[in-house]
Amino acid sequence: MEKFSTHTGIGVPLRQSNVDTDQIIPAVYLKRITRTGFEDALFSSWRKNPEFILNQEPFNAGSVLVAGADFGTGSSREHAVWALKDYGFKAVLSSRFADIFRGNSGKQGLVAAEVAQDDIELIWKVLENAPGTQVTVDLESKLVTAGTVVAPFQIDDYTRWRLLEGLDDIGLTLRNEPDITAFEATRPSFKPTTLPAKS
Amino acid sequence: MTEATTPDAQGSAQVPAVSATAPRRAAKTLAEKVWRDHVVKQGEGDGDAAQPDLLYIDLHLIHEVTSPQAFEGLRLAGRPLRRPDLTIATEDHNTPTLDIDKPIADLTSRTQIQTLRNNCKEFGVRLHSLGDAEQGIVHVVGPQLGLTQPGMTVVCGDSHTSTHGAVGALAFGIGTSEVEHVMATQTLPLKPFRTMAINVEGTLRPGVSSKDIILAIIAKIGTGGGQGYVLEYRGSAIRALSMDARMTICNMSIEAGARAGMIAPDETTFKFLKDRPHAPQGADWDNAVEYWKSLATEDDAEFDAEVSLDANTLEPFVTWGTNPGQGVSLNDAVPSPEDFGDENAKAAAERALAYMDLEAGTPMKDIRVDTVFLGSCTNSRIEDLRAAADIIRGREKDPNIRMMVVPGSARVRLEAEAEGLDQVFLDFGAEWRFAGCSMCLGMNPDQLEPGERCASTSNRNFEGRQGKGGRTHLVSPVVAAATAVRGTLSSPSDLEPAGTVAARAGATSASNVA
What we know:
Chain A is 30% helix and 19% strand. In chain A, strand 2, helix 2 and strand 3 form a beta-alpha-beta unit. By secondary structure, chain A is α/β, with parallel strands linked by helices. The longest helix of chain A has 13 residues. Chain A: GO terms for molecular function: 3-isopropylmalate dehydratase activity.
């Protein structure tokens, strides 16, 4: 996972609450066998509507999604995070995230920044009045900046630390590699292995 | 008995709140001991602020549907699969049960299967492919090979991994990111689960089986009742069950919301494992048994919650609704939404009755079904097939019933054929298929038509689970068989005496059907 300290990119105002993962990526795309290449699947139903925000310039080149409350509810599909990342989003701002979506985001390096709803409203106005405004998400200071608006955001300490360090769970676990190797050395001889195959 | 922590019968309203982390204490229950023996590194801190423990995984089971992105993740990060020798794969979810020697017709399915084959070859993972004698449902194959043993930690990207708890393993389903995590590190960072004792005392009556025990438990504690807990099934009724029957119970722990279910290893377990291909040999066997015996829950152990069920009075159980907790005794009638005090449960019942096209007050035994499905990781083992065959032998199938029999593994299929069970099913007019998950989830062509009603030995009666618009009643293998004879939901006791070989009925299946 790449380190994340700060990101600046075009903000996309998504004035909608309860954006569930079925909307983020419909089930039909879960048949795919890859973890990448889901950019076309992101919000695919909504994107059929020419009025949808991601069909308008310059928002189609956005990388910071500013959404309503309760973002990422519903199905646990990690594909929702993959689709957002594949499209180019680095961070999502919302006043409230569904737990599973937040967990999946942390595993995949997408910053789910919890911003007070009043501040979300202010940022929406900035982005709508001046389309293409750059939004900065600074994980060090836990501040988000959009034009003249500077607002704090919440993210749990453990996830923030992992993102700043650029460590996914696997990278973190591998820091304990000597412990794993030592544990493996104590494995009783009666425990089975799958190789070589016996029948 | 701590009745205050016993969840309510109809849903999750009174289920005790579970904090994120279980309290740290000396390991005295089966689940705690297995956890203790796999901690690579204990997380710092206590309570909700605690960091997760790093837990070693003894066995990783893989199938075609939840693994492709995990393999790709390894490839993108340039990481090896750490322990191919603790990993095994099989093809089950998306495989056909007919014409298995021909290319899979559905291109998406074929690609998914081929991807598993390519990945296993690239990363050195042992794979049992379609056509192989050890191919089958991942949760049937593991125990059958003797790879899942007491005291082990077992994971798989499938929620029914809880099945393996029947041998006394701590076994649970994981997501795709965790699948990759285990591939790369053979560990998982986890916070400890809480423990719940499920005490089942007494003796099952004829025609009542372990499926009825677990359906009754789920109806009692609700589909969220086990959330945050590892369930340990205990008591004389559990001890009397065979391994196949125990697997049926542990399998459906997830339907009660629990991540895992376990049964302490005993002589039944040891006898089941002895001489299986991957069971310990010689001195290793003796050492293993000594260790396995030490894992049993101690007499003074405390559980975070306890629930009891009386086996003596249990009747065959069947679901009427669209979640596994919506079940009643087969002798009862379809309940009315008005029977439910909780507004949410009432609304759920109304919706379920509409979907199932049932009227409140209809006796369950008056409900006519179209299809009988005998299979799935819940009930597709040799004893399940024997129990069903014993019911139908010498009897005639209702002419309007379609019955599909799908053995859990190629090995089970071979074993059944050696005993002549295939002929019993074929003579009866049932379809005898190749092994796989099949109609349990309808990912392959084995699906219900819209509106079709099915008595199914599987585990989930969700809307559309077995096919868009399909209606599922969860039942035991003997109820499925009796239903195929009468055409309506039936227990074996409803049947007229069979022809010449009726005396055999029940004789060979005593271990699974009391």
